[in-house]
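So, does this match?
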Amino acid sequence: MSEVDIKTVEKLARLSQLDFNEEEKATLQNEFGKIFDFVSQLQEVDTENVEGMTSVVKNASTPQRQDNPQNQISRDNLQSNAPSTEMGFFVVPKIMD
């Protein structure tokens, strides 16, 4: 099984702003290893002569419509409910360091 060190798990937890106890970290370490093993199996599949697909259904087409904007709301009207705006942008509180 692929080895994922505990420091990597702790870094991912910090970046996602989640707190885990030691038991949960060990479980995540094991689960990440399983995921990486599965992905490495996918890398072994020979796709040399396989044509790219955009749909699982052969010759499928996606109906498209004209993109015509309707019912436009002015920026001032849209931002009138916002607690804080600056130079036409929404101002939101900082959530990450």
Remarks:
- The mean pLDDT is 90.
- Helices lie at 6-15, 22-43, 75-79.
- Residues 70 and 78 are 15 Å apart (CA to CA).
- The beta strands are 85-86, 89-90.
